[in-house]
């Protein structure tokens, strides 16, 4: 099982969650929301190579934490993974769109200078702007649009640009989102939970709840959950080899 977007450091007992991930032999991308969370979050998993930590600056925090871009630049060479980054145009954050764009441009430029990263990207209510910005930095690495909820037209553009997508249980519960997922080539899809932010009812999703996304995808793809799981694992391996073969 692969959870390609989990906020491990935001669970109440991260070490217990890491132990459970190890027992289940899962692969997890542990995303962060601020550069200052980098050191503590990497320390959680340093003896477990199947969990990788991504360096991030969440768009909902861009206006408060943009001064941490200097720290971002300090740590970027320590990882192949960047996230969570992106833009958020929802009502509470739309007023900060200029600083969000400044932060995302800085990050995509830094990824380019560093030779390219795998980047987990948030684009809620800002799909067009996010995909537009990504297109300005074709050598930033491999963008993985996380929990994409934008339009079909932008989705097609993102697919043409080589973007990947990570989809989770919460996304698969929405009919509109399932219609979007049906437009994405199967070879560009990974699974995620976005826990503990994303929930099932009142309960935060755990990384292993990613199985719910595997089952949802198997229904969409008319195959068994085992076959869907295998397909996602092969995608994951392909993504990593694509990254290591880039210049
Ligand atoms: Mn997230």
SS field, number of helical segments? 11
- What letter string, H or E per element, gives the SSE order? EHEHEHHEHEHEHEHHEEEHH
- Estimate the global geometry from the Cα principal axes: globular
CATH level-two architecture: Alpha-Beta Barrel
Briefly note the structural class of the backbone. alpha/beta
Instruction: Tell me the helix content.
Output: 40-55%
| pLDDT averaged residue by residue | 96
CATH topology: TIM Barrel
Q: Quaternary state, please?
A: single chain
How many strand units?
A: 10
C-alpha termini separation: 29 Å
Major sheet: arrangement of strands: 4-5-6-7-8
Radius of gyration: 17 Å
Number of domains: 1
Look at the structure and give the CATH class.
Alpha Beta
